[in-house]
# Entry
Amino acid sequence: MAPCTGTTVYMLISMMIFITMVGCSEPKQRMKETKMVLYLQDWEFGKNSTAVPVAGINGRFANVLNFTTVSVVDDALTEGLDRNSKEVGRAQGIYVNSALDGTNLHLIFSAIFTNGNYKGSTLEFQGADRRNLKYREVSVVSGTGVFRFARGYATLETVFVDDSGYDAVVRFNATVRHS
Ligand SMILES: *[C@@H]1O[C@H](CO)[C@@H](O)[C@H](O)[C@H]1NC(C)=O
Ligand SMILES: *[C@@H]1O[C@H](CO)[C@@H](O)[C@H](O)[C@H]1NC(C)=O
Ligand SMILES: *[C@@H]1O[C@H](CO)[C@@H](O)[C@H](O)[C@H]1NC(C)=O
# Structure
């Protein structure tokens, strides 16, 4: 093997610097950050229920608070706590009670925006909704429309529960970075 001469080393270093410079000259795509507050209207009982348990462990009453229950949801996402406040979209997907002691709802849903600034776009939420905690955090894993390449998180807080203990309104404070 030929000995490594000073010239060869110099050429290699120059090439490396050149490659680094080319790499840096690419325009960096800046991610935007959007914060939003959404109220998830999760109504399992009564008039116009939008969250329905569809399956549970064999032979047991499928109850959202019990391990193994799968619920399908089409919950309104509103601007305010009031069920009749302006609807900005729908949360469509599922909750799976995935804790043996019933304390965790694994949620996977699409927030489908139908009104306002984000109309026509979607965000994908997924995570552990440990319903006994005052504050929980779930992930925003992707999005479409204005939220392409989205990544982020949402802090969840149950801001209303009715006497049945099932119907609830959950506030989602979401922070999302997207292209
Ligand atoms: C339930 O649905 C009916 C008929 O669509 C509607 O008139 C009523 O306002 C709804 N109630 C609530 C609480 O959303
Ligand atoms: C279902 O959940 C309710 C409310 O948390 C609880 O009282 C009950 O024991 C649970 N049942 C089963 C079979 O886990
Ligand atoms: C969520 O946002 C609301 C409205 O801006 C605010 O009052 C509340 O403190 C926030 N909650 C969390 C956990 O950040």
In short: The mean pLDDT is 88.
